[in-house]
Amino acid sequence: MRTMRSFQGGRYSRPDAESQPKVEFRKTYGRLLKYAKPYTFWILVILIASLASAFMSVLPAQVMGVAIDKIFEGARENEQGVERPAREAERAQGSDEPSFRPRVELPITPHINAFADWVAENWMRDSEEKIVSAVVLVLAFLLLFAASRVLGVVQGYIMARVGQSLVYDMRSQVYDHMQRLSVGYFENQKTGDVMSRVVNDVNSLEQVIVGPVVSLITDICRLVWVLYFCLTWDWQLTLMAMTAVPLLLISTYIIGRMLRKNFRELRTKVGELNALLQDNISGIRVVKSFAREEHELNRFNEKSRENYTLNVRIATIFVMFRPWIDMLNQIGMLAVLGIGSVRAMSGAISPGMFVVFIQYLPMVFGPITGFTRYYNHVQQALASSERVFELLDTEPQIALPKNPVSLPKLSGRVEFQNVSFAYQTGGETLRNIDLRAEPGEMIALVGPSGAGKTTLVNLIPRFYDPINGVVLIDGMDLRWLDLTEYRRQIGLVSQDPFLFNDTVENNLRYGRLDATDEDLREAAVAANAAEFIEEMPEGYKTEIGERGVKLSGGQRQRLSIARAILADARILILDEATSAVDSETEALIQQAVDNLVKNRTTFVIAHRLSTIRHADQILTLENGQIVERGSHEELIGQNGVYTRLHKMQFRDVTPKPSPPSRRRGSRPGAGGGEGRPPFRGQINIEDDLI
Q: Which of 151, 444, 600, 605 is most buried, by the most CB atoms less than 10 A from its CB?
């Protein structure tokens, strides 16, 4: 069997399954950060706001420390009998030194004192010093707290806009790339899983790009300020408080690896669950017709149970991880309480500074603990982003030329020169196909099921590339044409037409987006669809449901023909539009098809041979090869495969009377009863035959 390949830069590659390279962990986050490049300015604004907000947020604790120091200072002065007049005289002599002064002063203390003096001189001249100090401390705390929160709001708003823009950009890129992938990719993928990658997996990136990033940046900036102050005041006590940090970081790394593995498996299971749900909803009529609701519920519950098990496993890891983190946090707190209290009592640090240390400790461990939570979110997001990048890294099966040839208007000549094709999963479906269709000709394809008819016409819009040979359009190799421009000049009407869950108007206009209302009506009239459209409750603005479920089969077919008429395609591909409909509807559809194919090169996959009698060429396919070709009369005269198929559809049937035992329980008109008139029309033959 020949290796499956499609043309890429002069070589061929496998056409059915685009390669999906495994995404490396180290590269994944770097690729995510690249999406932030267009927003560099706003990210710098966020960083500056985060730095300022973090600085403002650590100062209220120092205000509290100043208050504690002043309380202790006042208590010490009262205890020693220091009178206010004596202190004022001391200040008048030019000395600012209080009777109680620690070895290290809080950085904000001189600023608070200066502010208090200014307030006392300008606003509260008649007030006692302790009243002024209390008012100043309250005002300073409120101002600093409000300033940090205002900066936080500005920072959060900008970050939310930037984060959502990043998610929007990624989702748009993923959707655009998905649409560029070939038909073969979607034939080998579960629809629900692809949907999960585009929607759920991209959305999960908000957990690492939007909210947590704001908190992480602010926490890191706050940690830097806190460590700067604490190391300046008492580096030994600070290092003692940080003894548990290495254990915390190591634990985070280990737990993160465990979580990432489980998160990736969870995202896969979510995709499988979505795929099952999508299949069930799309096939709900089949489910109900076979009364398989219980069976589908069991399948759904099985997949849902797998998701339940993984979620419980992940939750268990978090539950076990949290107490360990809390214990490590308490080690630092115990170090500050034990050693810090001794140093405060010995005068190495002031009581206020000891209180600030206690308040700063959560600000030290908070960012580290927040980083562990953020890291866990990153693991979950990376598991999703890996699935997204696998989709983005999937190379389209159909390689586009670097310098495509533009064909603004096709004449419609189609040639197959020694074309062979094979799917990845089997042998050659087509072998050595040669055909030539002149502009305006109708080419009919007949043959048993599996002969390769659909595969042949799928090569025309280049849904696949042949493994050998070449397909020419107007004398040019199809592989070098601008696909978008080319496919806009191809019309496809399938046996089971696809209609969008939208209005009649929008479904028709899909054939030509700039079509006017008058264009829509003319196309509908030509397709014998105008009458039933205008009888609908809202006419052309009537919603027709998913896949046109609110319409009959014949109505859906006529809408698809009207859409193709509106597109004004030069090449048409028709997969027997009149099969499985009643005689009256068949006549309407056949008339619409006759209007559609005028002056267009048309390829018809024919199941009912009555529809192709006047075709310019009839090609009979068998086992992937053209075994007969010619007009209807020529093929009938050859007494070959076409003749056999024709006789099976148009033979006269005069059945013999059945024995009584075999007619028992038969209904009138069924099974060939006595007195039944000879059948002069078509009979339904199994699809395997034609």
A: 444
Q: Please return the burial class of 367, using the count of CB atoms within 10 Å of its CB with bins 0-12, 13-18 and 19+.
A: buried
Share of the chain above pLDDT 70, in %: 79
Packing angle between helix 351-392 and helix 293-335, nearest 10 degrees?
A: 150
CB of 102 within 8 A of CB of 69? yes
* Burial of 524 from C-beta contacts in 10 A (0-12 / 13-18 / 19+): buried
Q: What is the layout of strands, in order, in the sheet containing 601-605?
A: 490-493, 571-575, 601-605, 442-446, 617-622, 625-630
Q: State both tokens at 641.
A: 């495969």
Amino acid at site 129: E
Run of H or E including 108: none
Whether 241 contacts 335, CB under 8 Å: yes
Mean pLDDT is highest, among 63-67, 447-451, 457-461, 676-680, for 457-461
DSSP-based three-state secondary structure for 396: coil
Reported as a single tens digit per residue, the pLDDT across 603-634 is: 988 777 777 888 889 999 988 899 999 988 88
The amino acid that residue 462 corresponds to is R
Burial (CB < 10 A; 0-12, 13-18, 19+), residue 303, is middle
- pLDDT recorded at residue 585: 66
Q: What is the pLDDT of residues 415-458, one digit of tens each?
A: 999 999 988 766 788 999 999 999 989 899 988 888 888 889 98
Degrees to nearest 5, angle at CA 105 with 100 and 106: 125
Which residues on neighbouring strands pair with residue 436, listed in sequence order?
415
* Residue (of 149, 156, 138, 67) closest to 359 by Cα position: 67
Task: Answer whether 577's CB lies under 8 Å from 589's CB.
Answer: yes
Q: Which two tokens stand for residue 559?
A: 């809408």
| Distance from the Cα of residue 291 to its chain's centroid | 33
Rounded CA-CA distance 387/136 in Å is 56
What amino acid occupies position 251?
S
Question: The tokens of 610 are what?
Answer: 């009555």
Q: With left for phi above 0 and alpha for psi between -120 and 50, is residue 440 left, alpha or beta?
A: left
- Sequence-separated (6 or more) residues with CB below 8 Å from residue 241: 230, 332, 333, 335, 336, 357, 361, 364
- 602 is written with which tokens? 């048309």
Handedness of CA 43, 48, 49, 54 (dihedral sign): positive
| Residues 466 and 392: beta-carbon distance below 8 Å | no
Asked whether 162 and 217 are in contact (CB, 8 A), the reply is: no
Contacts 24+ apart (CB under 8 A), 593-597: 593/493, 593/561, 595/526, 595/527, 595/565, 596/491, 596/493, 596/526, 596/527, 596/561, 596/564, 596/565, 596/572, 597/442, 597/572
Q: Whole-structure pTM over 0.85, yes or no?
A: no
